[in-house]
Structure formats: structure tokens, C-alpha cells
Amino acid sequence: MLPRYYTVKQTGKNEINIQKSRFIAHIKRAESENEAQEFIQTIKKQHWNATHNCSAYLIGEHDQIQKANDDGEPSGTAAVPMLEVLKKRKLKDTVVVVTRYFGGIKLGAGGLIRAYGKATSEGLDAVGIVERKLAQIIHVKIDYTWLGKIEKEVRASEYKIKDIHYLDTVEVEVYVAEDLVQPFMDWMVELTNGQCDMKKGDKLYLEEDYVRET
User: Fold this and answer.
1) CA-CA distance, 151 to 170, in Å (whole number)?
2) Which of 6, 44, 76, 193 has its CA 20 to 30 A from that of 12?
3) pTM value surpassing 0.70
4) pLDDT tens sequence across 23-35
5) Cβ contacts of 135 within 8 Å, gap of 6 or more
């Protein structure tokens, strides 16, 4: 599992118009090639009457699966520029379909490359990007008398609360970066005067919105 990587925040779409042609970018997170292909086919069915439905995707921790399909546009003018945008943004597990409705004005090879790249880039901005950071879940069991203090301290820190379970005692689940597990546990002991029980849980990804520098 990668310690951190970028991917799209959500499924969505964004439309731009260039020289009377409509370019609609459809974007989705896809963690397998089957998932990516299913999304592509869904968009093609929805926009069966479009001039082109060009697609590109990057899948795998090391981008093992890369595909680009120009769907009738001149070779290299549509899907490759789309794929290059994904690579430039350092995204993983992402599929993009750009639907084009031809508006009557030919753009030429250079114009197509710029148009499909722009449609993809603006589509990504519209749906949002997240950074996924691998974290260790630490389960902290405490008496109810400690809950207010612990919750306040954790929420004011760099750590993130995943969940709180209200049982006979309280169990707080916290996302902790792997290199901070011991400092976090020492901190919990200090805050509760040693009156807590802790154990490691699963390793999960914590998602945080990523804002691109302009």
C-alpha cells in the first residue's frame, strides 16, 4: 500500500464550449480496469449520439494499467492529451471520458490536443482532488469522564478522529500516521494519567482535500 497518493474526490462532470463544439468531461475514481470500462460504456450509452466519446485511465499503485482511446478523433489528438493531464496531476485510479458534440468548426490537430487537455483539466478542478494518506487506526478505550478532554485535545491536534463508540466505556478510533503511533500512544497515556487501553486496528487511507497551487 502506498503511503500517500492523489485521486479524484468524487464522480462528476464538467462542460466547456470551444469553437461551437461541446466538450463534456465525465470523471470517476476507478480501482480496477473493469470498473473503468463499465464507466466508459455507461457514458457511451448515455451519449450514444455524440460525435466522439474519448477515454483515458490510470489504474494501479504504479500506474500498471494505462489506456487511451481516441474514439474516431485523429490518432494522438484526444485521449493521449487526456492521459497526460492525469499523469501531470499525479493522479491514480482515475478514469475520464470526454464527450464531444461537433459544432461545425474543425479545430485541427493542435486545437484538438488543447481542447481535450483543457476539458480534462477543468473537469478535474470541478470534481476535486484528494490526497489519500495511509494511517494506522488506534483504538483508545477510556472512561466517560475522560471523553470531553480527549475529544477536545485530539480535534485540536494533527490527528483525526474516525469514530467514537459509546459502550460500557468509550472507544475512540483515531487516524495516526505510522511514524507517529508511539508518540500518539505516549500522549494518550499522559492525558489520561495512564487510565486508557489502546490497541492497533486496521491501516486505512485518510482523505484530505488537495488544493492545487496556481
Assistant:
1) 11
2) 76
3) yes
4) 999 999 999 999 9
5) 160, 175, 176, 177, 178, 203, 204, 205, 206
